[in-house]
Specification:
Elements lengths: L1 E7 L2 H11 L5 E4 L6 E9 L2 E9 L5 E5 L20 E5 L6 H9 L4 E5 L4 H14 L13 E3 L7 H9 L6 H30 L16 H17 L4 E10 L5 E6 L7 H12 L3 E14 L7 H10 L5 H13 L20 H6 L7 H10 L24 H4 L1 H17 L4 E12 L2 E12 L25 E13 L6 E2 H11 L7 H10 L3 E4 L3 E4 L1 H14 L6 H14 L5 H21 L1 H11 L8 E5 L6 E5 L5 E4 L4 E4 L5 E9 L6 E6 L6 E4 L1 H5 L24 H4 E4 L7 E5 L7 E4 L5 E3 L6 E8 L6 E6 L13 E4 L5 H4 L5 H6 L14 H6 L13 H9 L1
Parallel strand pairs: 1-4, 1-7, 7-8
Antiparallel strand pairs: 2-3, 3-4, 5-6, 9-10, 9-14, 10-13, 11-12, 11-14, 12-13, 15-17, 16-17, 18-19, 19-20, 20-21, 22-23, 23-24, 25-26, 26-27, 27-28, 29-30, 30-31
Helix pairs in contact: 3-5, 5-17, 5-18, 6-15, 6-16, 8-14, 9-13, 16-19
The protein binds one DNA strand of 8 nucleotides through strand 5, helix 3, helix 5 and helix 15.
InterPro entries: Topo_IA, Topo_IA_2, Topo_IA_AS, Topo_IA_cen, Topo_IA_cen_sub1, Topo_IA_cen_sub2, Topo_IA_cen_sub3, Topo_IA_core_domain
GO biological process, one term: DNA repair
Keywords: DNA-binding, Isomerase, Topoisomerase
DNA sequence: GCAAGGTC
């Protein structure tokens, strides 16, 4: 029997589609990556009995990146990224092993049906899947067609079965347009990001952002926030005047009337109207009206609307809201939360999900009534062909979900109930008055039937006093006539909800990526989230956007993306050649880039106003090994040391504290060592600022401290302080922290393992000898006589932390020691690790010429 | 270390 291999875009869809096509009779098992499942059933295909194998990928299989050597920032000129730098496709998520998974499952199959989402990205993934699977599938005989594309617009029985009955072919042009987008985004984004970052980070010490990124989505997103900021800054309040009239309605009630001119900006004119109207004693009714109006029930919920409400009403950021929604989805409480669709398919079972809510403590009454009286069809929304609107799938209580998950779930559920409820109906009454020549109105609303506002009380029409019944010609006595002086107010900072709306309107990002872009501009320190989830741009954000405006406004305008997308659509429609469009667009941006680089002084002028030059930032900390002057420690991200005399910058480990290390110096380069520490309970180690940036030995990499240094004799090195192989990670070595007394610690130089030992010991040293049993270095421990925990009141002991029975009680490594390879049993695995490794003779010095004097010195030393 | 787009 032949086999048909079928692939969907995500595991949930593979399952739903297989269920529909197999009419529920399928057998399922997890794939080798643990994320995707395979669903099997038998049926017929092109008129023959076959076995179907339905599975999925998890989004894109591949991602685009530069060849490795073009990812070295200091070695590659960003301008090269526009054309010279070659790109390669890498597995998007190596942990998922997607290519291997597809090959294992697809091997020996005869046909493939692609069920990826029906958008351009999905079409592109089709070809990623084919690239992986075609080589291992059975070869076609006699030109028989083996590759099929299913096109569907919703996950309903009819749609899926129709798609299966009318299989087509994957669209290569659409896929190519995505390839082009990927390459453009990568080349443009990385070139500008690297240039900006290096340029400004090399100049200013207090930028407080380790990355000054640029992107066709994130930059316009920031642009919206700064645009609002500029409006606020340039706002000049204007004074205006309003007439306000009060008339007596009943004995004890007055009506407030609104002036039909609303307001005037000229005091004298306002005064004139006041003078005229003040002469009148009565207001005359000119007209009355009573209209029944409706407030529409909401459209069914899609992702973007959910994110807007989560931000504006629940105070939850888009990223957090999305994570919460995903959890609710995987736990079966709601339907798939990433959808653009606001329209339920005709045959969607609305009553099922509603019945689930019929006994809910909060809304049972409303739901029961709806079920009894019949639900209202949801309004006609937009069908994007992806997933049904976000729908609660099973009832949940506050206690069950708790916190934000509950609040989001409650909103989603109330929204769903509202979409099948009736509109809110109310009566709007208006009375038009004339006072002298001027007209005034007064209106009021009375609810006729609350409809959906019952379940969404925050949407309800506020109760207002009834207007008096009257008719044309009636008069009311004026009780007060006055002129109010007011001022126009500046707009407030953009709310996240407004930003989402703007992004959606301009096509910046997608439902899935909008939260990511907003998160990016927060993390890069371009904007901060203020109360009410308003986004306030930082100095850095403002300077960047103003700089782009000054040099090339297109870099920040939202049109930049849509212009490129127009070109990409031409590729998708087969009207333009992929290579030509790509080459042409890259050429334009390359010119823009060069112009930007040449004009960067314009942005720099703005930077100077807000930020301080490197040389003027930070406080003196440690001495430079070259000029022996003090270097300054710059704490703002990315923290580093700067020698203003040599004009050199040395990066430091991030997220911790840096102190001078007793003015001790590195024997290789004479730089003063600094001590990095992750906090009082964490680990700390000394490092040489020079070696950290320019590894002195061949077997060392950038970013290594003394605890990884293979210097054979330096008292701070791994060779001298290393104890033994780490108890948890594969490659680390436990190193004595010489600064940790009296609460002594050994810490792994790779992972986060920290072990406390020998509390209150007076001195702990690493001895020259190693343990005969496990090869770990012996420790030489001295206690004060009064405090010694050693047997027989001894004050000194030399032994192995892993094996010595005397030390067992003094080392908090208990669980750790039990994990040590020595005690795990097994035939002497991983020989030659640990201390022996630290002491291993170093490899021969590099035969290549060292690149500078310091490296020459280091090489010589070895 | 960089983009944006899928999804886990």
């Amino acid at each position: 029997m032949k086999t048909v291999f079928m692939v969907a875009e995500k595991p949930s869809l593979a399952q739903s589609i297989a269920k529909i096509l197999s009419r529920g009779s399928m057998s399922s098992h997890k794939g080798l990556n643990g994320a995707c499942s395979v669903h099997e059933y038998t049926g017929t295909f092109t008129g023959q009995p076959v076995r179907f194998k339905m599975t999925s990928v998890c989004g894109h299989v591949m991602t685009l990146d530069f060849l490795g050597k073009y990812n070295k920032w200091d070695k590659v000129d960003p301008a090269e990224l526009f054309s010279q730098a070659p790109t390669e496709k890498k597995e998007a998520n190596p942990k998922l092993n997607m290519v291997k998974f597809l090959q294992v499952e697809g091997r020996g199959c005869d046909y493939i049906v692609l069920w990826l989402d029906c958008d351009k990205e999905g079409e592109n993934i089709c070809f990623e899947v084919l690239d992986a699977v075609l080589p291992v599938m059975n070869k076609a005989h006699g030109g028989e067609k083996t590759v099929f594309r299913a096109r569907f617009s919703s996950i309903t029985d009819t749609d899926i079965c129709n798609a299966m009955a009318r299989l087509g072919e994957p669209d290569h042009n659409e896929a190519l347009s995505v390839d082009a987008r990927q390459e453009l985004d990568l080349r443009i984004g990385c070139a500008f990001t690297r240039f900006q970052t290096k340029y400004f980070q090399g100049k200013y010490g207090d930028l407080d952002s380790s990355l000054i990124s640029f992107g066709p989505c994130q930059t316009p997103t920031l642009g919206f926030c700064v645009e609002r900021h500029d409006k606020i800054q340039s706002f000049k309040p204007e004074t205006y005047w309003v007439l306000q009239a009060k008339v007596n309605a009943d004995k004890d009630r007055t009506l407030l009337l609104d002036w039909d001119r609303v307001r005037v900006f000229d005091r004298e004119i306002a005064q004139m109207f006041l003078n005229i109207t003040k002469m009148e004693k009565e207001a005359q009714v000119e007209a009355t009206s009573r209209k029944e109006k409706a407030k529409q029930r909401p459209l069914a919920l899609n992702t973007v609307e959910m994110l807007r409400v989560a931000s504006s009403s629940l105070g939850m950021g888009p990223q957090h809201a999305m994570q919460t929604a995903e959890r609710l989805y995987t736990q079966g409480y709601i339907s798939y939360p990433r959808t653009e669709t606001t329209h339920y398919p005709e045959n969607f079972d609305l009553k099922g999900p509603l019945r689930q809510q019929a006994n809910h403590p909060y809304w049972a009454d409303t739901v029961k009534q709806l079920l009894a009286e019949g639900i209202n069809r949801p309004r006609k929304g937009h069908d994007a062909g992806d997933h049904p609107p976000i729908t609660p799938m099973k009832a949940a209580t506050e206690a069950e979900l708790g916190g934000d998950a509950w609040r989001l779930y409650e909103y989603i559920t109330r929204h769903f109930i509202a979409t099948v409820s009736h509109d809110c109906k109310y009566l709007q009454s208006t009375i038009t008055f004339r006072i002298g020549p001027e007209h005034f109105t007064c209106s009021g609303k009375t609810v006729i039937s609350p409809g959906f506002t019952e379940i969404m009380p925050w949407q309800s029409v506020p109760p207002e006093d009834n207007l008096p019944t009257c008719q044309r010609g009636d008069t009311f006595a004026i009780s007060e006539m006055k002129m109010l002086e007011k001022q126009t107010n500046p707009p407030d900072y953009l709310t996240e909800a407004e930003l989402i709306t703007l992004m959606e309107k301009h096509g910046i990002g997608t439902d899935a990526s909008i939260p990511v872009h907003i998160n990016n501009i927060c993390q890069r320190n371009y904007v901060t989230v203020e109360s009410g989830r308003r986004l306030k741009p930082t100095n850095l954000g403002i300077v960047l956007v103003h700089g782009y405006y000054k040099i090339d406004a297109e870099l920040v305008l939202p049109t930049i993306r849509s212009a490129v997308e127009k070109q990409l659509n031409l590729i998708a429609q087969g009207k333009a050649d992929y290579r030509q469009v790509l080459g042409h667009t890259l050429d334009i941006f390359k010119r823009k880039f060069h112009y930007f680089v040449d004009s960067i002084a314009g942005m720099d002028e703005l930077m100077e106003v807000s930020f301080s030059p490197l040389a003027a930032t930070g406080k003196p900390l440690s001495r430079c090994g070259k000029c022996h002057r003090f270097m300054k420690y710059i704490q703002a991200k990315p923290s580093r040391l700067h020698c203003s005399h040599c004009d050199e910058t040395y990066t430091l480990p991030q997220n911790g504290t840096i102190k001078l290390y007793k003015e001790l110096r590195c024997p290789l380069d004479d730089f003063e060592l600094v001590l990095w520490s992750s906090g009082s309970r964490g680990k700390s180690y000394p490092l040489c600022p020079y070696c950290y940036n320019h590894p002195p030995f061949r077997d060392m990499k950038k970013g290594m401290g003394c605890n990884e240094c293979t210097h054979p004799t330096c008292q701070h090195s791994l060779s001298m302080l290393g104890v033994g192989q780490c108890v948890e990670c594969e490659s680390g070595v436990l190193v004595l922290d010489p600064t940790s007394g009296p609460k002594w610690k050994v810490a792994c130089n790779r992972c986060n393992v920290v072990a406390h030992c020998f509390e209150n010991a007076h001195r702990v040293r690493v001895a020259a000898d190693t343990c005969g049993a496990c090869e770990a270095a012996l420790l030489d421990v001295d206690f004060n006589k009064a405090k010694s925990p050693l047997p027989g009141g001894e004050t000194q002991h030399i032994g192995c932390v892993f094996c010595d029975p005397v030390f067992q009680e003094l080392v908090e490594l208990k669980h750790a020691a039990a994990c040590h390879p020595m005690h795990r049993g097994g035939p002497g695995r991983r020989q030659g690790r640990g201390r022996a490794r630290g002491r291993r003779p170093l490899g021969k010095p590099s035969s290549r010429r060292p690149k500078d004097k310091m490296s020459a010195l280091a090489a010589y030393f070895v």
